TrEMBL record:
<dbReference type="Pfam" id="PF13460">
    <property type="entry name" value="NAD_binding_10"/>
</dbReference>
<dbReference type="InterPro" id="IPR036291">
    <property type="entry name" value="NAD(P)-bd_dom_sf"/>
</dbReference>
<dbReference type="InterPro" id="IPR051207">
    <property type="entry name" value="ComplexI_NDUFA9_subunit"/>
</dbReference>
<protein>
    <submittedName>
        <fullName>SDR family oxidoreductase</fullName>
    </submittedName>
</protein>
<feature type="domain" description="NAD(P)-binding">
    <location>
        <begin position="8"/>
        <end position="197"/>
    </location>
</feature>
<dbReference type="InterPro" id="IPR016040">
    <property type="entry name" value="NAD(P)-bd_dom"/>
</dbReference>
<dbReference type="GO" id="GO:0044877">
    <property type="term" value="F:protein-containing complex binding"/>
</dbReference>
Length: 304
């Protein structure tokens, strides 16, 4: 049985990779920054080590006795996580280079990395350049590898649903650019399958090819809002982005990435089977239930 180390195991993708590995019967070690973060994995791993990819010494013996490393580590695209002002280059490139060096130094036989689907013009964004520079480092390292390149994760599109619930359907540009986003569960399946694959790169997308307007309209429909998308001209958004640059480079890079991908066709081979509308409805329902539970708790507190 192969022994797998999952780096970035407590993130949106990482925890689903751990579940898929467990389902397939692999022995799993996870690397996390703290014991408290491991709770989200619900004991689906066999061993753990505490360490930070930005601090090579802290990773210690995490790679000892490991056959393959799966790195799901990278800078979050969730605005709620932007208290950390580290740039995409520092985290996506620098942190993962530390992981790759440790894997090479301990004789790991295979390295799996999750990047982003290539599309013409997408390299303008620092987020993509940081992934591409690390992908190049893997190719030049001599290790056996597979780079999984999905389109946008469903979770990245939750901002469309958040805006829709407020009655806003905001689209950058003309809304005609196409994409087939993919559920993280489908990506996790492809990542685990890559352990037994001879492919150096695997491109994957979801089942539905949608324009940015159609994604916004879908979010508005799920939110029960009878509205039409509002389009923000690219040049206005670009001005806003550069005004933010001196204050938080991470947010600047995030908005630069958004400005780029909203105007490009990013369509990958239709690998995934889970659909965006079902995901939006699931998230909308769970958020409504959470809101109702909080209201009930407040009511009980008042009655006492």
């Amino acid at each position: 049985m192969k022994r797998i180390l999952v780096v970035g195991a407590t993130g949106n993708l990482g925890r689903l990779v751990v579940s898929e590995l467990k389902r397939k019967g692999y022995w799993i070690r996870v690397l996390a920054r703290s014991v408290s973060k491991l709770q989200i994995l619900e004991d689906e791993f066999d061993d753990y080590k505490i360490g930070d990819i930005l601090d090579p010494k802290s990773m210690g013996s995490a790679f000892s006795g490991i056959d393959a490393v799966i790195s799901c580590a990278g800078a979050s695209l969730d605005l709620k996580d932007f208290k950390n002002k580290g740039t995409f280059e520092e985290i996506n490139l620098g942190g993962n280079l530390n992981v790759l060096r440790a894997a090479l130094n301990t004789g790991v036989s295979k390295f799996i990395y999750t990047s982003f689907l290539r599309a013409k013009g997408i390299q303008k964004a620092e987020y993509i350049r940081s992934h591409d520079r690390f992908s190049e480092a893997i190719r030049n390292s001599g290790i056996d590898y597979t780079i999984v390149r999905p389109t946008a994760f469903f979770s990245i599109l939750l901002e469309f649903l958040e805006f829709a619930k407020k009655g806003m359907g905001i689209v950058i540009g003309n809304g005609k650019a196409k994409i087939n986003p993919i559920h993280e569960k489908d990506v996790a399946k492809a990542v685990v399958e890559a352990l037994e694959s001879n492919e150096e790169e695997i491109n994957i997308g979801g089942p539905d090819i949608l324009t940015r307007d159609q994604i916004t309209e879908l979010a508005l429909k799920v939110a029960g809002r009878n509205k039409k998308p509002i389009h923000i001209p690219i040049f206005l958004n670009r001005i806003l982005i550069y005004l933010l640059r001196p204050f938080n480079r991470r947010i600047f890079q995030f908005m630069q990435f958004g400005n780029t991908v909203h105007t490009l066709d990013i369509v990958g081979p239709q690998y995934g089977v889970l659909r965006l509308e079902d995901y939006f409805r699931e998230k909308s329902g769970s958020q409504l239930l959470h809101s109702e539970n909080r209201s009930l708790e407040k009511g009980k507190g008042f009655s006492r």
